[in-house]
From TrEMBL:
It comes from Phyllobacterium trifolii. It comes from the Bacteria. GO terms for molecular function: DNA binding. GO terms for biological process: regulation of DNA-templated transcription. The lineage of its organism: Bacteria, Pseudomonadati, Pseudomonadota, Alphaproteobacteria, Hyphomicrobiales. Pfam families: cNMP_binding (PF00027), HTH_Crp_2 (PF13545). This is CRP-like cAMP-binding protein. CDD domains: CAP_ED (cd00038). PROSITE patterns: HTH_CRP_2.
Length: 243
């Protein structure tokens, strides 16, 4: 997408993304997913494409059907902070739809992905009428908040090596949901990895380079492969020396 298209997408946000030209209503759903709905609009996004911009009042929410989506905000110093990387079956805009609030994060495709979009009223109606579903929504929201709190606490008192190791291990679990047979490989750019910490890309590259020399991680640009998970766990725990 060019700059003009990105600007337009940021302004209209998820509402525009939910009704793309040429996309027809379908009855695709996932029976074992508590958050599946019968009717959806499907749309594919290329890696790096903006899905929805912050500051937009929406009445649509989306489910990640394939690939990964990053949710980010801008720090006061101008750096991007990726708050969350959302895997398959993750939701976008669900809480904002329930609260009738604007999106406070920008959502971007971290990989080529497919999203299914739903009308907000479907979520509100089911939330109001189904106590079990309401419990699931609250549980998911609390789990996401708790995970973010743990990351903030860990980042506040940890050195870069510890934070980076913890992030790679955590993301290996996230990416492993899409590739359960290969949880040691992450398809992520160094820019996105640095923004997830957040930290400067240069310092992250220096740390990764030392770990490559020690055979802890490997991989080319846009890919990280864990070679020595125990060593990475030791760094995550704050160990000063790893044999």
């Amino acid at each position: 997408m060019d700059g003009a298209t990105h600007t337009h997408d940021c302004r209209v946000g998820i509402v525009k993304a939910a009704v793309p030209e040429g996309i027809q209503l379908s009855n695709r759903s996932v029976p074992d997913d508590e958050f599946s709905f019968c009717h959806s609009n499907a749309r594919s996004f290329q890696r790096g494409e903006i899905i929805a911009g912050a500051g937009v009042l929406v009445d649509m929410f989306a489910r990640v059907q394939r690939g990964f989506v990053s949710a980010s905000t801008m720090l006061p110093d101008g750096r991007e902070f990726i708050v969350e990387i959302i895997p398959k079956a993750g939701l976008i805009g669900d809480l904002e739809v329930l609260r009738r609030q604007m999106l406070n994060l920008e959502y971007r495709a971290s990989s080529d992905c497919e999203l299914h979009f739903f009308e907000g009223r479907l979520l509100r109606e089911r939330y109001a009428s189904d106590p079990r579903f309401r419990e699931k929504v609250v549980y998911r929201a609390l789990a996401r908040v708790a995970e973010l709190e743990l990351r903030i606490i860990s980042n506040a008192g940890s050195c870069l090596q510890s934070r980076l190791a913890s992030t790679i291990l955590r993301l290996s679990t996230v990416y492993g949901k899409d590739t359960p047979d290969n949880q040691d490989e992450l398809i992520i750019s160094q820019y996105d990895l640095a923004a997830t910490l957040p930290a400067s890309r240069e310092k992250v590259n220096q740390c990764l380079r030392r770990w490559r020399e020690r055979k802890i991680v490997d991989g080319s640009q846009g890919k990280i492969r864990i070679l020595n998970r125990k060593a990475l766990e030791a760094y995550a725990d704050g160990a000063a020396l790893v044999k």
